[in-house]
Amino acid sequence: MNQKGVRNIVLVTLILVLAAIVGYFVLRKPVTTTPAGPLPTTHPTSKNACQNLYDEIENDLTQANYCQNDSDCDVLNLGSSYIAFGCFHFVNKAVDKNRFYEKMRVYDQSCTDIIDECAPAPKPSCVASRCVYIDMAGKLRDG
Questions:
Q1: Contacts with 105 (C-beta within 8 Å, 6 or more apart), sequence order
Q2: Sign of torsion, CA 16 22 26 29?
Q3: What angle do CA 37, 38, 39 make, to 5 degrees?
Q4: Is 78 helix (H, G, I), strand (E, B) or coil?
Q5: Distance between CA atoms of 28 and 39, rounded to whole angstroms?
Q6: Is the pTM of this model over 0.85?
Q7: What percent of the chain has pLDDT over 90?
């Protein structure tokens, strides 16, 4: 095989690899995420156990914030008993919000005494596959 033939094979292979990579990112759909694992059956009894549950819930919230357009976004209103996790978080509308509230209720009953002071959540928008809002200064914020 001559040098031109080898170059053509390399070029075609490179184009196919690039097309596969671009196709992956364009066509992939996020997996609907709900809080991981079973709901806690006992209340945390130590600072370490509380921190582990808090971290698990925060990770669940991060995993549940995905979208492809604005209509995919919803608000998980918190405050009140759930204030340890903020006033609100943006999540995909397909997420089971009750699972979040149930996990947070277990956390609240054993791990926190924060006072609720929240304003209403702003309307979310989908930007770069994440549910966010744009503040008064024009900056992107996540719940």
A1: 81, 82
A2: positive
A3: 120
A4: coil
A5: 29
A6: no
A7: 27
